[in-house]
Design goal:
The protein is α/β, with parallel strands linked by helices. It is built from ten helices and 20 strands. Helix 1 crosses helix 5.
Length: 545
C-alpha cells in the first residue's frame, strides 16, 4: 500500500488543527504509512530537520498539501523566501515525481502569478475540496479511492517483460530451418550457423589474455617511482561504488610531480539517505601505489551544525522558524540611548560584547505553538496565529523546560529566553540605533491596534527578518531588573542578581510610541498574574563560553 506525506503550514490555523485527524483518516483509508513531522518519533532529537523531511518525501508515494484559509496569504508573503519549508517540500515532491494532491480546507488554489517559478506546475494540479466541518464524512471515501487507484496503477505496470520480443513467436522452433528438412539429418552437419557466434578457441584465449594483462600491470607497478607525498594519507571519497578520480589511466604521470589528489569531496545528494560518509584509500581506485598504512587519515574539521553562517539566516527547529543572530566578536554593541531616561534603570553608555551567536524565533510564540507543547491555551484573545499572552514568567519556564526535555539539542544548546542584551541586539539587528520613528509600519501599538493583539508577522520585519519586535505583545527576557552598569563594557551579560521584578521588552498594543522603543524597559512583579499584553519569544542559546 502507498505511503503518504502530509505537507501543511503551522501558521495556517485550519490545516494546523486538522493535520492529526487527517493523518488518522489516511491510516483508515488504506495508506500504509503516514508522515507528520509532529508525530512522536518522526523527528528524533538531534537529527537534522531538513534532511529528515527530504528523506520522508523520497520514501513517500503521495504528498497531500493541506491548504487552509491563511495558506495563500502566507505563501504570497514568503513568495521569494528560500526559508519557506512548505515551498521546499512541494518543490522536492514535484521534482521527485511524487503524486502531489492539494487538499482545500477552506482555502483556495493559488493563481499562476502567486507562485514562484519553481512551483508553477502546482497551479495546474487537480485539488480535492472539503468543508472542515464535515471532513470526517467526506475525506475517507476520497482518500480510500486515491489509495486504491494508486495501488492499482502500480500493479498494472508490467515488470521484467522484455519490450522487443514478439509475443507470438514460438520459443522452441528455430526460425531458419525449413519445414521439409529430413528428421535424420546428422547433428554434426552445420546448418545456418549464426554469424555472431564467436569461435570456440576465443573462449580458451580469454584466461590467457587476462593473466598476461595482470602480469604486465604488476611489472609496471613495481617499476613505478614512489611519488612525493605530504604528511597524511591521500584518500578519495566514494559515492555508490563510483570514484570521482578522473585521471586517465592510459597516460603515465610525471614521476617527479607529487600526487595532486588529496581528497575529492562528494556533493550532497538530494536524497540524504544516499549521502556517503566513508572514504576509500586512493590505492584501491587508481594506479598509484597505496599509501603507507601506518599513517592515520586526519578528517577535515566538522562545521558546527547548530551555529549559523550569516546574520538573518533562517532555520527551522521543531517547526519553529528561527533567525541567526551572530556574535559581536570584539566589536562593542551599545545599548540604550545617551538621551534615554534614568527611569526604570535606563541610562546611557551601556556597552556589551556577545562572544557567541544565538537563534531567535522569527515571531512571538503563537497560541498554536504553546498549545502543541502545553495542551491548553491561557490567552485572552483567542486565535492559533495570535501571540500567546496571559502567561507568567514561571509559565514560560515550564514551556521551555518541556521543550528541552522532549526536543533536546546537540552540543549543549538549549531552548531559553534571550537575555536583555541579546534581545536588544537582535531588535536593532546589531546596530547602535536611534529612536524608531516609523512605528506604524513595524508595530501594533496604542495608536493602531484597536485594543487587541493581531496575527504575528503582520507588519514589516527588521533587517534580520524578525517580526513584531516592537508592539503587539511585550516579551519576557531572562534577566531580573537592575540598573545598567554605566561606563563598563560587559561580556555576555546575564543581568543582576535575583530581585522582585522581571523585565519585558518591546512594548505592546497597550503602549505608546515611547514604550515600544528598542531600549524601553518595563517590569512586572514575580507574583503578578498573567497579563493579556505580555508573552515571549523563544531563543536557542549555546552553553556559556
Amino acid at each position: 500500500m502507498p505511503k503518504v506525506f502530509l505537507c501543511y503550514r503551522r501558521s495556517d490555523p485550519t490545516a494546523n488543527w486538522l493535520v492529526k485527524p487527517i493523518g488518522s483518516i489516511c491510516k483508515d483509508a488504506g495508506f500504509d504509512e503516514v508522515f507528520v513531522d509532529r508525530n512522536k518519533g518522526a523527528i528524533l532529537p538531534g537529527s537534522n530537520y531538513l534532511y529528515r523531511i527530504q528523506e520522508a518525501i523520497h520514501s513517500s508515494d503521495v504528498v497531500l498539501v493541506l491548504i487552509g484559509e491563511k495558506w495563500l496569504s502566507i505563501l504570497k508573503r514568503k513568495r521569494n523566501s528560500d526559508s519557506d519549508m512548505v515551498r521546499t517540500e512541494i518543490e522536492l515532491a514535484l521534482t521527485s515525481r511524487k503524486l502531489v494532491v492539494p487538499i482545500l480546507l477552506g482555502g483556495k488554489m493559488p493563481d499562476e502569478d502567486d507562485l514562484p517559478e519553481t512551483l508553477r506546475d502546482f497551479h495546474f494540479l487537480e485539488a480535492g475540496t472539503f468543508d472542515p466541518n464535515t471532513l470526517e464524512k467526506e475525506l475517507p471515501d476520497f482518500l480510500k479511492e486515491l489509495a486504491e487507484r494508486f495501488s492499482k496503477t502500480q500493479k498494472d505496470i508490467p515488470k521484467d517483460i522484455p519490450k522487443d520480443i514478439p509475443k507470438d513467436i514460438p520459443k522452441d522452433i528455430p526460425k531458419d530451418i525449413p519445414k521439409d528438412t529430413p528428421k535424420d539429418t546428422p547433428k554434426d552437419t552445420p546448418k545456418d550457423t549464426p554469424k555472431d557466434t564467436p569461435p570456440k578457441w576465443i573462449g580458451a584465449l580469454v584466461p590467457f589474455l587476462l593473466l598476461s594483462l595482470l602480469a604486465t600491470s604488476l611489472f609496471l607497478w613495481s617499476q613505478w617511482p614512489e611519488p612525493e607525498r605530504e604528511k597524511g594519507d591521500h584518500s578519495v571519497t566514494a559515492h555508490e561504488g563510483k570514484t570521482s578520480n578522473t585521471e586517465d589511466l592510459k597516460s603515465k604521470p610525471d614521476p617527479k610531480q607529487a600526487d595532486p589528489i588529496a581528497e575529492v569531496p562528494v556533493p550532497l545528494s538530494a536524497d540524504p539517505a544516499s549521502s556517503p560518509e566513508a572514504s576509500v584509500p586512493l590505492g584501491l581506485l587508481s594506479t598509484n601505489p597505496p599509501p603507507e598504512p601506518s599513517k592515520p587519515v586526519t578528517p577535515a574539521p566538522a562545521i558546527p551544525i547548530m551555529e549559523g553562517t550569516e546574520a538573518g539566516e533562517v532555520r527551522i527547529f521543531e517547526g519553529l522558524e528561527m533567525v541567526w543572530c551572530p556574535p559581536t566578536s570584539e566589536k562593542e554593541f551599545r545599548m540604550g540611548l545617551a538621551s534615554s531616561s534614568e527611569e526604570n534603570g535606563g541610562g546611557s553608555d551601556y556597552r556589551i560584547i556577545l562572544r557567541k551567536g544565538f537563534w531567535l524565533a522569527v515571531t512571538e510564540c503563537t497560541q498554536a505553538q504553546w498549545l502543541n507543547v502545553m495542551g491548553s491555551n491561557p490567552s485572552y484573545f483567542q486565535g492559533d496565529t495570535l501571540p500567546v499572552e496571559q502567561v507568567r514568567y514561571v509559565d514560560v519556564q515550564g514551556w521551555l523546560e518541556k521543550m528541552n526535555r522532549e526536543h533536546s539539542l546537540q552540543d549543549g544548546w538549549r531552548w531559553s529566553l534571550p537575555s536583555e542584551a541579546q534581545w536588544e541586539y537582535a531588535c536593532r539587528a546589531g546596530r547602535d540605533g536611534s529612536q524608531l520613528t516609523n512605528l506604524e509600519a513595524v508595530a501594533w501599538f496604542l495608536g493602531n491596534a484597536d485594543s487587541q493583539t493581531h496575527e504575528v508577522g503582520g507588519k514589516e520585519a527588521n533587517q534580520w527578518g524578525l517580526y513584531d519586535m516592537h508592539g503587539n505583545i511585550a516579551e519576557f527576557v531572562s534577566d531580573w531588573f537592575g540598573a545598567y552598569p554605566v561606563g563598563e563594557v560587559m561580556t555576555d551579560p546575564t543581568g543582576p542578581p535575583p530581585g522582585p521584578l522581571r523585565i519585558y521588552r518591546g512594548g505592546s498594543w497597550t503602549n505608546n510610541l515611547q514604550n515600544c522603543q528598542s531600549y524601553s524597559r518595563l517590569t512586572v512583579t514575580t507574583q503578578e498574574r498573567g497579563l493579556n499584553y505580555v508573552g515571549f519569544r523563544p531563543a536557542l542559546t549555546p552553553p556559556a563560553p
